[in-house]
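re: that chain from earlier
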Amino acid sequence: MLKKRQLALRTLIAGFILHFILGTFHLWQTILRYFNSYLLEFNNLPIPDKYLEIIFSLSNVPHGLFMILGVLLTGHYNSLQITGVGLLIRIISESMYIFFPNIKIVTLCVLISSSATGLIYLPIIIDILRYYPNSKGQCVSFAMTGFAINRLMFKYISIYIIDPDSIEMIRGTRRYPSIINSNFQFYLKVYIIFFSLF
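^ sequence. v structure.
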């Protein structure tokens, strides 16, 4: 009985931490203008206006499909196994932004990262519901609070790291000065290292 209670508590805390990490995927919408400028610095070919916005919006399709797959896999695998695989895929795909700042690779990695995020979104919630049948609402709310805290904190932290002086784009372009692009690359490294620790 004690072992089951400990496992239930660990699952609940893991759900909070996982959703804290998952909040970062939606953070990209806030910093797309910096990401776009970073890619323009490394790509000789012009990137169509709003391209990243379109790709991140389209990434909701694989995200939704892989959420369904994640639910189906919970019948065969432990939610922590699904989460481990999904997080590893996400970290590897988002690391590619640093090593290969090429628009085609970034497009592929955004779609892969979105799929991995969808895969790990619900399995731990299903386990929480299983462990806490009499307090489903409170426990799921606790786990999902991690998502909200991340969104609240990292929006401001990210912008502070990338553009602490609120530098404007170079007039007539969609690019920021090189210092902002260097800051963005540093931000990507911090982002990957920080979330790899979890």
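The first helix runs from residue 2 to 27.
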